[in-house]
Amino acid sequence: xxxxxxxxxxxxxFGALDENSIAWKVALKAHEEGAQFVLTNAPIAMRxxxxxxxxxxxxxxxxxxxxxxIEDLDNLVTKSMEILGGKIxxxxxxxxxxxxxxxxxxxxxxxxxxxxxxxxxxxxxxNKVMQVAEKKDAMNEWGSILALTYIAAQRTLPDxxxxxxxKAALExxxxxxxxxxxxxxxxxVNTISQSPTATTAGKGIAGFGGFMExxxxxxxxxxxxxxxxxxYCVAMFSxxxxxxxMQNLMHDGGFSTTGMTEDVLAKFN
Length: 269
Ligand code: NAI
What we know:
single chain, 269 residues, alpha/beta, Rossmann fold, seven-stranded parallel sheet, 7 strands, 44% helix, binds 1,4-dihydronicotinamide adenine dinucleotide
């Protein structure tokens, strides 16, 4: 059921790779709620052509951009304002990639060139997006900017490797830029810390299936899925959450504050 929560709002959505992507679900939901937006992803990620289906379904245009390139971001923001006919109300940063994780490098044997790539793609790109938007005065007053993160930024979990460092930086960037953008333009900036979700990025982590089940059993409400995450994103883009900023918002069914559950304990008794 739609509530017109984003009626008249214009946005940019990063990171819809295929129909499992969290950004894909956010785009569908935002469209349902009345938003207009531009879809973007790294040029290399578009070779599969999946994103064209989403664009057709949501009546939106695609502007490719490597989120680590200021030049690409500059072009994206300029074109988005042209396409949408004005300034932007919301941005979703749904981007994550670690070459070390992808290539199964252990944490004790990291490739540091790749580590820098992980940080650039998964964290610094968030800062770059906001800096470009600020310089081009692209955001409307009371706009909302979100990035997706994971609990491994704050608690150590096996196999999340250098992505944990990237997520910690991402959450810090939301606080720093949130302060700046709040003072400048009443724009809010937050991260949503999502449950493990079966997507291309998620499944890249070793032992993901078992971990997803563990997280589900450790969460009183169970894991939050991608559609539920999309609902939360829409709420955060809507005018109902105007004074929420500089927060890392847990969207994990209670996982992050649960010490033990009967379900998990039963495995040991
Ligand atoms: P996904 O693999 O569908 O999305 C990741 C996206 O990042 C892809 O669309 C990819 O093309 C894009 N990307 C990679 N390098 C890029 C670059 N240089 N420029 C622009 N885009 C680039 O996976 P998912 O799970 O939807 O990931 C979205 C976000 O959610 C990521 O930040 C991820 O870390 C986060 N997240 C995912 C969880 C999961 O278990 N799947 C849990 C918590 C957070």
